[in-house]
Amino acid sequence: xxxxTIRDGWxxxxxxxxxxxxxxxxxxxxxxxSLNADVLKFxxxxxxxxxxxxxxxxxxxxxxxxxxxxxxxxxxxxxxxxQAFGQSQPGPVLxxxxxxxxxxxxxxxxxxxxxxGLFGTIRNPLAHNPKIEWDMSEQDALDLLTMASLIHRxxxxxxxxxxGTP
Length: 166
What we know:
- It is built from five helices and two strands.
- It is mostly helical.
- The chain has a domain at 51-160.
- Residues 1-5 and 7-32 have low confidence and may be disordered.
């Protein structure tokens, strides 16, 4: 199968939003690519305009917005992640698993680190640097939007943690 572009179409599965127009995704060699509906809700207009810089910026902001909604916290960035997913007393507000085994605790810490890394390396520079100083290729946008979609799927399965439990 030839590489597709966002213009050729990014198919939405039953778990993702359906868009009225197909849009860009070059060098995508799978037949079943999709983005989480919440990613599309935040950056559909930018994707349709092929504005990858702002599409990725909006997608990363959607992650913080979802964490705030799920956790009822108001902070942002690393502080938000530490409060929502940290394992300090009395425990995290949100969990992505049962936190019973060391492996699960490690997965929770790794997910928090992934979020902090995404905010620190992508969202913050996009927020503070002019678009003309930050090259955002279509391929970079695809990779980052796919990561944002994965994070949203993990957040969709997250649970509120009861204080005092593991």
